[in-house]
Amino acid sequence: LGTKAVVVMPNTAPQAKVEAIRQLGAEVVLCETSERFKIAAELSEQKHMTLVPPFDDINVMAGQGTVGLEIMEQCAGLTHILVPLSGGGLLSGVSAAVKAVSPGTKVYGAEPAELPRYTESLKAGKPATVPQKKTIADALVSQTPGKLCFPVIQQNADGILDVNDEYILKEQKLLLMEGKLLAEPSSCIGIGAVLEGLISFAHDDNVCFIITGGKVGFEQIERLKDVKF
């Protein structure tokens, strides 16, 4: 659109991801993970720019819901869909869209075990904040569910799977070595849930894993060398 963009990111983001955003022409502002929403709001006010939330926005949720519609159009008869989960934009959109066209298809969110914000929130019956902790899944670091996302997920998702970092790395290596697909840890966390035994499937189930990104630096590939799966 020819519009200037400023992207506020956690300082734990891989350098490859930061550089890729800069190459697209955006200004990158790095900050502590827990401060990014506050800093984004301050910058938008100072620079008179429109704030585009990463997940807690009806238009963002609806846009991400088109992923669910495309999956159901291309893969009739799916029994399960596993979705990476952070603030909840992708899972809220996908679960609402899928349930609208195929109520019997089960939709699960997979979040890092270090940041079980949706597990805790669903227990509490309202959005809850968990302590900020480090996880290998650097794109799934929200502490609190989106206020707009939470009730949609509460209504439509069939469960939340909390995956440990050890299994997130296992699934990244498995996908690279056996699937020949280079994906960032956050994007293929659903496969980690299966490797950890958090969910199992029948022989005749048709399962879709949503894999959402591949910004991986050489240092991230190097750490896979000694991972066993």
List the strand order in the largest sheet. Answer: 5-4-3-6
Radius of gyration, in Å, reads 17 Å
Low-pLDDT segments? none
**What's the total helix number?**
9
In helices, the fraction of residues equals 25-40%
Q: What is the arithmetic mean of pLDDT?
A: 94
Taking the alpha carbons of the first and last residues, their distance comes to: 44 Å
Written as H for each helix and E for each strand, in order along the chain, the element string is EHEHHEHEHHEHHEH
The secondary structure category is alpha/beta
Morphology: globular
Q: What is the count of β-strands?
A: 6
The main sheet comes to: 4 strands, parallel
Q: How much beta, percentage-wise?
A: 5-15%
What do you see in this structure?
By secondary structure, this protein is an alpha/beta fold. The strands form two sheets. Strands 5-4-3-6 form a four-stranded parallel beta sheet, with helices on both faces. The protein has a two-stranded parallel sheet with strand order 1-2. The protein is globular. The model has no long low-confidence stretch (mean pLDDT 94). α1 links the parallel β1 and β2. Helices cover 40% and strands 13% of the residues.
Write out key terms for the chains shown:
about 230 residues, alpha/beta, 4-stranded parallel beta sheet, two-stranded parallel sheet, about 40% helix
